[in-house]
Amino acid sequence: MGRWDGPAPKPRGQAFSDILYATWTDDEPDYRFFPGDELEVAVPSAPELTKTVTVQPDGRVALPLIGPVMAADRTIPQLEEAVAQAYSRQLLRPQVDITAKASPLKVFVGGEVGNPGVIDLTGDGDALRAVIQAGDFKTSANRSEVYIIRRGPDGRGMIRKANLLRGMRDGRADLVPLRRFDIVYVPRSGVAEAGLFMQQYFRDLLPIQFSYALGNQTFQ
Question: Is 150 helix (H, G, I), strand (E, B) or coil?
Answer without folding.
Answer: strand
